[in-house]
Amino acid sequence: MDVKGLAAIVTGGASGLGRATAEALIAAGAKVTLLDVQEEKLKATAAEIGAVAAVCDVTSPESVQAALAVAREANGPVRINVNCAGVVHGGRIVGKNGPMDLAGFARTIQINLVGTFNVMSQCAAEMMTQDVLNADNERGLVVNTASIAAFDGQIGQAAYSASKGGVASLSLPAAREFAPKGIRVMCIAPGLFETPMMTGLPPDVYDSLIAKTLFPGRLGKASEYGRMVVQIAANPMLNGECIRLDGALRLEPR
């Protein structure tokens, strides 16, 4: 799929992996709409990179419908959907004060997993109504964001790991379901990437995390995630799979 001229929707687009993905797609010629709940930051980012801003709560069907309408009006029907919106919730399943707060666990699942499903399903429904784009009969592409914590979840990551494990598991059944309509579904599981959360850590902690990545010996760059999305779009044989983008990092139990 050549992304040039195609309409793309990126969730979590105000910063981090979402912003970098939007920048990579725009550089390749796509027309991008950013979805995020952080209204002020979202609008500033959209203005800086040349994207459309649509304030959106990914857990709300109505909010997603409204955001898709904004995107459709500005750029036409969606052809590419990249889901980067997510939150982190740490804590043991059973800590010093007893079982983990269920509300925190549920919120993580709701945003990371249910939110991804909500946006993916609505975008895919719109893609299915469009004409095919090329000789491979492609109509669209969905790329979801998991994490290596989906496979190497550490103590204290139960909520996050469960949510991202669900995202990773969506890839194959969704790809199988959407295949007759020419829509691919892929997933990327990033390792440790340079984000505000990571770069704000104490120097000794930051250095110890870098040491865990075999090669290259550094944290991933958000731009490398964005580049992977564009590469996935370009290769029609990539479908129904979760790609670890982690420099051969394997997380220890703690």
Q: What keywords describe this structure?
A:
254 residues, alpha/beta, 46% helix, 9 helices
Report on this model:
- The protein is an alpha/beta fold and 254 residues long.
- It has a single domain, classed as Rossmann fold (3-Layer(aba) Sandwich), CATH 3.40.50.720.
- The protein has 9 helices and 9 strands.
- The strands form 2 sheets. It has a 7-stranded parallel beta sheet, with helices on both faces.
- Strand 2, helix 2 and strand 3 form a beta-alpha-beta unit.
- It is globular and about 55 Å long.
- The chain starts with 6 loop residues before the first strand and ends in a 9-residue tail after the last strand.
- The model has no long low-confidence stretch (mean pLDDT 95).
